[in-house]
Amino acid sequence: MTRIFLLAASLTLPFLVSGISLAKDTELSRHFSASSPEPGVELVHDDWSRILSAYIVEQNGVNLFSYAGVTAEDRARLGGYIDYLASQKVSSLTGAQQFAFWTNLYNAITVAVILDHYPIDSIRDISSGLLKRGPWKKKLVVVDDRELSLDDIEHEILRPIFKDNRVHYAVNCASIGCPNLQPVAYTGETLDAMLDHAAHQYINHERGARIEGGRLVVSSIYKWYTEDFGKDDRGVIDHLLTFADPDLAMQLETVSRISDYRYDWNLNEPR
Question: What whole-number distance in Å separates Cα of residue 164 and Cα of residue 157?
Fold first, then answer.
């Protein structure tokens, strides 16, 4: 994967969307917190949208990616798109554009990593170092002279800068248990609506939340990031209610605690 360097200006970040994240500021979050108050460069995400629409297949409410069918041409297109994003001056973008930028970069890199190791059964079969399951800690791209891993993008940039728990429905870990990889790229203009849609999709699917025998079973995401969803079971349930359809909402009103957490790490591909 080509690594491209760029320089960022120093501006303040006015953009915050709904939700609460307790991820602490880091050197990376301080470095990338600058943004333009006015729309500047309009990024072109056509190649990423083309790839997503060509290879995503919906089955029973889960968006699966046909890794086996990706052509050499589209693999090159994907690499070119990642290099294109890495070459951008991030601080010239508005806050919403930056959120979309980092989300698209995270998801595109994840797909590229899977393709580099395919065939595999799970993203956790990929190692990023001794005793480190998954590729998340490996430095995979350079933006503004900073070598970044997937963990850096999610936990050092997206969560602490934007403080929006809907980020957990946007970044995709190439697993069945993960919220859907959307069939189009995120943009600054579509960001808020797409985040709401992704949250609604996931919460109202059984892998997000369901009642089994009067007990609430939810995705392990709500255990791993409880701090982002209100710190305790009640906070998570209130968050679920924000996006729950009437039937699920009625069931959620009957419980006061989470009984179990589950997650499916199988690769998100058609079978």
Answer: 12
61 φψ region: left (φ > 0), alpha (ψ -120 to 50), beta (else):
left
Residues 5-28: pLDDT tens digits? 222 322 233 333 333 444 788 999
Q: How far apart are CA 224 and CA 261, in angstroms?
A: 10
Please check whether residue 221 is in contact with residue 227, taking contact to mean a CB–CB distance below 8 angstroms: no
Q: How far apart are the first and last CA of the chain?
A: 28
Q: How far is CA 142 from CA 36, 138, 271, in A?
A: 21, 12, 34
- What 3-state DSSP class applies to 248? helix
Find out whether 17 and 193 touch, Cβ atoms under 8 Å.
no
Residue-wise pLDDT tens digits, 218-266: 999 999 999 999 999 999 999 999 999 999 999 999 999 999 999 999 9
Dihedral sign from CA coordinates of 70, 173, 179, 271: positive
Residue pair 195/166 in contact by the 8 Å Cβ criterion: yes
Q: How does DSSP assign 116-175, residue by residue?
A: HH-S-S-GGGSEEETTEEBSTTSEEEEETTEEEEHHIIIIIIIHHHH--GGGGGTS--SB
Tell me, what amino acid is at 235?
A: G
Could you give phi then psi for residue 232, rounded to 5 degrees?
A: -150, 180
23: which DSSP letter?
P
Dist. CA 187–CA 269, nearest whole Å: 25
Does the predicted TM-score (pTM) go above 0.85? yes
Q: Which token pair is 14?
A: 């006015």
- Please say whether the beta carbons of 38 and 167 come within 8 A: no
**Residues in a beta bridge with 261:** 218
Structural tokens at position 184: 């189009």
